[in-house]
Design a protein that fits this description.
With 301 residues, the chain is of the alpha/beta class. The protein is built from 9 helices and 13 strands. It has a 9-stranded mixed β-sheet with strand order 5-4-1-8-9-10-11-12-13, sandwiched between helices. Strands 3-2-6-7 form a 4-stranded mixed β-sheet.
Length: 301
């Protein structure tokens, strides 16, 4: 069984600020904000939500199919995906744009400030979903606005269950649009901040959302673990302590890759989340979103 991963492919420029943003940004002066952060380290990594999710899912033994757009500089990324034996038949190459780019600054508290250039990602809606008997589950991760809306309709019409994971694209949609996503989705996955914004925009609580017909609403809480909402009831699933905290970039995507792996196999939701918490703790000890090494013994831990 294959999992369709709809989202971005991007290059991440990752830097570290050896201080705290809170010490540099004065809350009462944000209306005249003008700050500069000295970042002594800089790395360029393969990233984007679709790429990161596919990396973890494939490393666990899943079968990802990536639906995303690359730009005129994306040849190396396409070769990388194919080197993992990932199905790239639904990857669009747009020669008129650069591949999406994220510039990320992380401080000592693992807070992040990101500037994102969408580039070719804005053309992802030109990819159509062909009939595929092998695709049994999907995720709509952050992508071009039109692409995300189109995917929700296509997957719903094809009766393919999917996770709605709006991520940083959540502010691009109004309340009615977000309600439409939720009503079509099978699961919703957000972090705690996104969860609050989703509730604010839709006018629904997480409890109410979980009673709409969704199988679950998953709210990640970083080191504290995850809240699992099912039929109006919430269960806190404890996090897994990381051996080392190095880089939070891509931790949410690693979690979602593990979530998809378990859902593909019909695991109970709690078991899927426990695996996601373990993989998230593993990822945060590595730099970048696609450099963590997964020992499949973790599947029986």
């Amino acid at each position: 069984m294959s999992a369709l991963i709809c989202g971005s492919l991007a290059f991440d420029t990752i830097t570290n600020f050896p201080g705290r943003f809170s010490q540099q940004i004065l809350p009462d002066q944000v209306h005249i904000l003008n700050v500069s952060f000295l970042v002594p380290t800089l790395r360029r990594e393969f990233g984007g939500c679709a790429g990161n999710i596919a990396y973890t899912l494939q490393a666990l033994g899943g079968d990802p199919v990536v639906m995303a757009a690359l730009g005129n500089d994306g040849g190396e990324y396409l070769t990388r995906l194919q080197g993992w034996q990932v199905d790239t038949s639904l990857v669009l190459r747009d020669e008129s744009h650069y591949t999406a780019q994220a510039i990320i600054i992380t401080d000592n508290d693992n807070n992040q400030i990101t500037a994102f250039h969408p580039g070719a990602m804005q053309q992802a809606h030109h990819i159509d979903l062909p009939p595929r008997a092998d695709v049994k589950i999907a995720i709509i991760a952050p992508d071009g606005r039109e692409a995300m809306s189109k995917r929700a309709v296509q997957l719903s019409d094809a009766k393919i269950p999917f996770i709605f994971d709006p991520g940083q694209q959540l502010p691009m949609f109004d309340g009615a649009e977000l309600r439409s996503f939720v009503e079509r989705a099978t699961w919703v996955a957000v972090n705690d901040y996104e969860g609050r914004m989703l509730c604010d925009r839709t006018g629904m609580s997480l409890e109410a959302m979980s009673r709409l017909g969704l199988k679950a609403v998953v709210v990640t809480l970083g080191a504290e673990g995850c809240d699992l909402w099912v039929d109006g009831r919430c269960e806190r699933i404890a996090g897994v302590p990381a051996q080392e905290i190095v880089d939070p970039t891509g931790c949410g995507d690693a979690f979602r890759g593990a979530l998809l792996y378990g859902l593909e196999r019909g695991w109970p939701m709690r078991r899927c989340i426990e695996l996601g918490n373990r993989i998230g703790a593993l990822k945060i000890a590595c730099r970048g979103g696609q450099n963590h090494v997964i020992d499949r013994a973790v599947l029986t831990a």
